[in-house]
From TrEMBL, chain B:
Segment forming the signal sequence: none
Membrane-protein topology: Multi-pass membrane protein
Recorded family membership: Belongs to the CPA3 antiporters (TC 2.A.63) subunit F family.
Transmembrane segments: 6-25, 37-58, 64-86
Annotated keywords: Antiport, Cell membrane, Ion transport, Membrane, Transmembrane, Transmembrane helix, Transport
InterPro entries membership: MrpF/PhaF-like
Entry protein name: Na(+) H(+) antiporter subunit F
Entry annotated with the keyword Methyltransferase: no
Amino acid sequence: MDTLTALLVVVGALAALLGSFGLLRLKSFFQRVHAPTLGATLGTWGFALATAVQISFEHSQLYLHALLIAVFIALTAPITTLFLMRAAVFRARMRGEKILVPGADEPPRPE
Amino acid sequence: MSPLLSWALAFALGCLALAMMLALARMILGPRAEDRVLAFDCLYLNVMLVILALGLIYRSSSYFEAALLIALFGFVGSTAMSKFLLRGEIIE
């Protein structure tokens, strides 16, 4: 069981590291918004599942409290990201940059 | 705890420390306020993962509650900052 826990922990930590690395490396803000999602999903699920597995096998009873964190983050991370994208679009338009509205400003696709 | 698991947890803590440093770097040199809020979001997620890893290391279940609280208050803080950037006031 320690092997499964170790695997989950390493996968989660690598996902969080990759997300933060993308946060630093990508060029524009609208690319960067998507990087921390990696740590928020795979990282959190990896650590929560590792905690659930480890404590369940140590106490030999089912312990699923840890999954509460993963569910909570999965529910709240999109809300934060959505507000942040809206704020970024709003501020970019206030600065006078032109940000296209999908569907309204794009040329219609050839059917 | 087997040596494999303790090494894996040490490796995970190292990775998360590096991730926190990268998020902090983006927070410092982010060109605009949105970048800083995004970096803060990433940073508190990494801190929450560190606390979960510490709970695995010390075999204590009270770390889990601390991680849950950090997730909750980090979400509230990020959302409030985003709303502030969007409107200039939080409570309308």
